[in-house]
Amino acid sequence: MAQKLPQPSPSGKIEQEVGLTNVTIEYSRPSVKDRVIFGDLIPYNKLWRTGANRPTKITFSTDVSINDQPLAAGTYALLSFPEKDSFTFVFSKNLESGEGNYKESDDALRVRAKVEPSDFTETLTFNIDKLRDASAMICMEWEKTMACMNLTVKVDEEAEKNIAAKIKEIEGAYGVYNSSARYYLDNNKDPKKALEWAQKSTSIQETFWNLVTLSRAQAANEVYKGAIATAQKGVLKSKEAGNDAYVKMHEANIAEWTPKAAVKKKK
C-alpha cells in the first residue's frame, strides 16, 4: 500500500525564460546532514547523477550554447564528473542514464566548469542567474561548492522565426477568410456572413484577389455603390500586380453593378 511520506531528497524544479528560450531543470535535492559531500559521499572523478534518486533532467525549448558549445533543443539527463577544482557536466541523450548504465556514446555535449567557493548550502540547489537578453549562468551549489555553466541563446534568430510565423499565420487567416466568403457566395449561402468574412480578409491585407470577393459580397447584399468603389480599387491593385485577368474581372463587375446602383439610388 502506497504511503505519502516526507522524502529524504525531495523533488525540485526551476523554470526560467532566457531571451526567448524556456529552460527547465528537474532534480532531487539531497541535503548535507553533517556529512562531507564532495570527495567523500560524492567521490571525485566518478560519474554522479547530479542529484539524488534519479538523474537530473534539463530542458531547452530552443537550440542553445553551453560554454560556447552548441546544444540542440530538447531534454537531457544532466550528469557530472566532480573534481576538486572543476566539474565536467555531461548532457546525455539517455534520460535514464546514471551511475549504473552510463554510456559515453549517449553524450550530446560535455563541458567543464570551474569550481568556485561559495557560502554553505545545506540542500543541493540549481540556479539560473545573471540574466541578460541572450545569456545566463546555470549554477549548481551544494555544501561549499559552486560550479556554473554559461548559457547563451539565439534571441535574434528566434525573434525572426516568431515574426515569420506570425506573418504566415496572418496571411493564412486572410486567405481562409477570403476562401470561406467566396465559398458562401459561389453557393448562394448567407450573404451577410460572406460579407463579414470578406471584410475580415481585406482588413488584414488588401490584395487584388480578395477585393474581388469583397466587392461580390457587397453586391450580394445590394451595397452596389460600395461594391463599385471596392472594384475600382481592385482594378488599380490588379494593374499594379500586372494581372490583366483580374483587371477585366473587376471592370466587368463594375459594368454589371453600375445600372443596379442607379436603380437603387432612384428607389
Shape: rod-shaped
The number of distinct structural domains comes to: 2
Q: State the strand order across the main sheet.
A: 1-2-3-6-7-8-9-4-5
Given as residue ranges, the uncertain stretches (5+ residues, pLDDT < 50) are: none
Instruction: Work out the radius of gyration.
Output: 32 Å
Helix content: 25-40%
Number of strands: 9
Tell me the distance between the termini.
Answer: 85 Å
- Largest β-sheet summary: 9 strands, antiparallel
Report what the structure shows:
The chain is α+β, with helices and mostly antiparallel strands and 267 residues long. It folds into two domains: 11-153, no CATH class; 157-266, Serine Threonine Protein Phosphatase 5, Tetratricopeptide repeat (Alpha Horseshoe), CATH 1.25.40. The chain has helices at 155-186, 191-204, 208-220, 224-241, 244-266; strands at 11-18, 21-28, 56-60, 64-66, 69-71, 74-82, 86-92, 107-129, 135-153. Helix 2 runs antiparallel to helix 3. The longest helix is centred in the middle third of the chain and has 32 residues, at 155-186. It is rod-shaped and about 100 Å long.
